[in-house]
Structures are given as C-alpha cells and as structure tokens.
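Forgive a beginner's question, but might I ask you for the amino acids of a protein and the tokens describing how it folds?
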Amino acid sequence: MIPEIFELAGRLPVRRLGYGTAQLTGPGYWGPRGEARDAVAVLRRAVERGVTLIDTADNYGPSIAEELVAEALYPYPAGLVIATKGGVVRTGPDAWHIEGRPERLRAMCEASLRRLRLDTIDLYQLHRLDPDVPMAEQLGALDELRREGKIRRIGLDSVTAEQLDAARELTDIASVQNRYNLTDRASEPLLKLCEAHGIAFLPWFPLGNGSLTTDRVCADIAAAHGVAPGQIALAWLLHRSPALCPTPGTGSLTHLEENLDSAAVRLGEEDMSRLDALS
C-alpha cells in the first residue's frame, strides 16, 4: 500500500500530493500569469479534489500567489494546511536576494500573515539559508515567531543533509524542500535523513520543470497504464518514499486534474526498476 497521508511533525496530517502556487504567477515567478479568476478556479478545484497542502511563498509574484490563495480559499476549510516561505527578496523576474536577518524574517512572516488573512501560518519555511547570518540567528527568529503563535512549524528549503542535522540541533524541523525528481536525485542523502526522522520532503521541480512529461521511458510506461507521462513521474515520487510530498503547480485546470489523478496510478516492480534506472 502506498501511504496517502503524511503527518507533519507527527501531528498535522496532510495528503501527500499537494498543490504548489508558483505557476500562478508570470515568467520568472514575476507578476501575474493571467486573469485572477483563472487562478482562483484552479485553487478552489484543488481543494475540491481533496488537496490539503497548499505550498506558496511571499516572493511568488512577489506577493501575488499568497494574495490569490486568500482570495480563493479564505475562510479556509478545516484541515487545509497553508505552507509559505520567506527569506528571499525579489527585485525583478531573474533577481533573487537571500535575506536572513532576524528583523527581516519577522517582517516577511508578518506580511505573509496579512496577505493570507491568517493568525497563524501552519508551516513557515526558510526559503534559503543566508550564508551571511548565523543559522542560529535565522532559526532563532523563526522559533521566536513560533513561541508567539505566529507560526506552528518550521521548514527549510534547499539544504544539505549536513545543514539539516545542524538545524535539528537548534530547533524542530517539520519539512524540507529540495529539487528532486526521477532524473535529479542529488538530494538522496537528505531524503534518507528525512525518512529517518519523520520529516516531510517537498520536492520542487517534481516534473523536472516539464522535461519529464516528454521522457521516453515515462511515455512507454504511461502508455501501458493508460495515463500521461507526467503522471508516471509523480506516481514514482509517491512510490519512492513515504516522506516525499510533491506539490506540483499549474495554472491549468486540465493539468491540475491530470496531476492529482497521479495518486491513483499503481506502479509495479518492473515499472519502478525501469524508472529507478533513469537516475
């Protein structure tokens, strides 16, 4: 049996296949993608389909994705977990600036609370560790926000296994987000560490930024199952490890339905062997 649910920090159950909001913004995650009503429709349909984990970030847009989440889903239904991120400042479509000073992290978190219309953010993720600020200061700022009731759980984005170990010495970590998919498994040691400690691993670029939707092996296996190649790539993640909680994003209702139907795909041993060999 492939587990459908992951319990964040052992206490907050979410369906493993969630929804990410980056694709609701324009090229380079900058500006709007199109009409707000289309994004609202996708978000609402995701929840109608049973998604209980929405992954967003303050710098998608910037601000636009969080505002769309609130417009579409507030007041939030019981059991819906909103995860957002802070720690990166945007000044243009291709401009990303890491910012981990405690006062800036606090300001970012409080701005996200306002945009999302929340009193408490279920999962607040540090989008990048700032190499110019001690880890203890960055995580200390998030711990302080947690003690104040503004966030419930802390996550990290784009870290090594060694960094996760160091972070766990400072505070409880509920999740990590790293690039991980069928053909990019550089974060395998991190995945094993997450499995060992009950930490959710939210892989970004789960479809290889679209490349896996045209992969020949995925296409062959998809044909045998009567599904699309991208569904095979997502199903592989769900089969690969119970800690993996992919949150594929899309601005298309058709692609949303396709992505969410991946949870029903059951891969056999031969399928998994062929897919594992793609690494």
Notes: The CA atoms of residues 195 and 243 lie 6 Å apart. The longest strand covers residues 151-157. The mean pLDDT is 96.
